[in-house]
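Comment thread on ticket #2218

A.B. wrote:
> Attaching the input chain for the structure job we discussed in standup.
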Amino acid sequence: MRRAQILLKADIEGANWMDAQIAEAFDCRTKTVENICQRLVERGLEETLNGVGRSTPPTEKLLNGEQEAHIVALRLAYIGTFQSTATHGRKGQEIALW
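C.D. wrote:
> Ran it. Output below, let me know if you need it in another format.
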């Protein structure tokens, strides 16, 4: 949203604000305004507004789906065992586990 607003203020046929005015209005650096305008010229409107999607995740997954499911099942089994033995306090009152 902010990138679009910056571009609208920088539009020569529109508001035509100076970079310093735009930076002050949107509480950013003048270099940020310059970079956004340069990206518009070099890469187009779509990429300027939405950025570039990642082709790979920032960190590789450590586990595959089967391994994740196994860990979840172990965790749920542990919680179930703990709850069945420890959820009732004195006089049948239930106590909170978390």
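A.B. wrote:
> Thanks. Noting for the ticket: DSSP finds five helices and no strands in the chain.
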